[in-house]
Amino acid sequence: MLTKRQFKNIAISLVATFIAMPTMGQDLLANQAPIDRKMKAVDSMALHRLIQAESYESPAADLYNDWNNRYAHKATALPDSFRIDLKNFCMPTSSRVLTSNFGARWGRQHKGLDIKVYIGDTIRAAFSGKVRIVRYEGRGYGKYVVIRHYNGLETIYGHMSKQLVTEEQEVRAGDPIGLGGNTGRSTGSHLHFETRLCGIALNPALMFDFKNQDVVDDYYMFRKSTYNRESAEATRLRGVGGKAVNGDLDIPQTDYAMAQPKDKNVKMHSTRFHKVAKGENLSVIARKRGTTVSAICKLNHIKATTRIRPGQILRYN
User: Fold this and answer.
1) CA angle 99, 104, 107 (to 5 degrees)
2) What is the pLDDT of residues 65-88, one digit of tens each?
3) Half-sphere exposure of 115 (CA within 13 A, CB side)
4) Contacts of 271 (CB under 8 A, 6+ apart)
5) Pair 102, 167: CB distance under 8 Å
6) Contact 145/188 with Cβ under 8 angstroms?
7) Is 299 helix (H, G, I), strand (E, B) or coil?
8) Which of 17, 62, 145, 148 is 20 to 30 A from 121 in CA distance terms?
């Protein structure tokens, strides 16, 4: 039988144990907290690395259906509005001289800006991203590069004399990607620079101010409903001669092929152009092409007294 003293000692021990239990639990929680924080940090780092890896594999994947090296531009679903981050940019060239606006030119849409550069001038990536296409197109861009950027844009750099990057290569804003040139359908050394969203050409003057070597703002908010007006205003403010031209948003079903007529007996209209040779004037060209000087002037938005230069391209039908 337990003595009164033994019973008292046991009771004291039990009470002490019960009192100590919450403290032990608190100690366990306190010891576990740093472990939980470390695990959370590890999880966050792993998630960040996963996001980075997916972004590298296909930049702006939420906007584009796929990643391919087949088409320079292929129209996909264009959002009604989209905010484009213009921070952390680099001007693709240090040249401040524009030679051709975005918009209507020679009877068709000119999908970019032409900036005067000389053969061998360094051309740089406008934003960080991944090189999608490095190719040569004799009747168009010449030697060109297409980069898809993390901000959703794709930029195209045409008529270069040499490409300095390869397909699937990751680039940072400001990295050299090529050298200025006069390859492809070009009448003089220059950089043809395009900015596209979901394959649709947007006026680069909305985002880039080449004369001041800067972007227009930290962001550009694209909206279908206001784009055409904003594009014309951007050309007026930052284009060649400050003259706004028609730059309507062109959203084709496909941007790399022309739809064929259902009736095979119906001939498709063919727009024809004449490259001005040395010594030619409008009268000489009109006789050669079986048309009139006034018709050529109307098609090219020029006057009969306009001085034309060798290498210039004129529409004549």
Assistant:
1) 110
2) 889 898 898 888 899 999 999 999
3) 28
4) 107, 108, 315, 317
5) no
6) no
7) helix
8) 148
